């Protein structure tokens, strides 16, 4: 049972998301070719001899991007003082996933091992199958570095496991430690918006959108050495959590407790505007005490 947060670091570059995939409609040979820019001889790999129709794909990643991802993950783990795990399938993709494993280990040994030891945290590589099982058995409290597709899938599983996509924060972090983008991890909730356009009340969870702003404001406050801004953002986040814990919540969260078919408006959940009003009231009260 998860009693602590879990942060997934998704390597948002390359792999399936920049792949060239195609359909073949006849028998033939699928080959991959690499042509060096220095004029040296090309390298060629035969992938498969198709006896008939099928599908193929070629994908890539770069050392520069993997190294940047590694630095961001190690820096974030140090900031949170949590252990870091990298998951791959290097037993099957020995060269591709093996490169992720090797570069992460190289960066850790060269730049971060002493800092990790100082905070009594650790870094480990795990096979993705083993890591998923360990995550389900764990109490949480760690950073999980994933390749692009794994991070896409596992982040949604984690969010739902904690109750709702509306509770998940999403921050794009650059290796320079200065440039970030904070956003709500869920989609645009189109169905709720169509109801809103018709003048009907909805019970849409705004917490992820609020936290997108607070994470951005916290970072801005740290860059500008503005403790008041950081404190405001932290207070707003705390108030959101306390409001839900007090029993005032939106329908998605009430459904996690009572079952969606059993929940009733104003008994188990409130609509969007009433929830925001409750947060505003609680925030004003919290700020007045500072």
TrEMBL record:
Cofactor: Mn(2+); Mg(2+)
Database matches in InterPro entries: IsoCit/isopropylmalate_DH_CS, Isocitrate_DH_NADP, IsoPropMal-DH-like_dom
Keywords in alphabetical order: Glyoxylate bypass, Magnesium, Manganese, Metal-binding, NADP, Oxidoreductase, Tricarboxylic acid cycle
Top-level division of the source organism's lineage: Eukaryota
UniProt keyword annotation of Nucleotidyltransferase present: no
One Gene Ontology term from the biological process aspect of the record: glyoxylate cycle
Similarity comment text for this entry: Belongs to the isocitrate and isopropylmalate dehydrogenases family.
PANTHER family with a match to the protein in the record: ISOCITRATE DEHYDROGENASE [NADP], MITOCHONDRIAL (PTHR11822:SF21), NADP-SPECIFIC ISOCITRATE DEHYDROGENASE (PTHR11822)
The protein's name in its UniProt record: isocitrate dehydrogenase (NADP(+))
Organism for this UniProt entry: Micrurus spixii (Amazon coral snake)
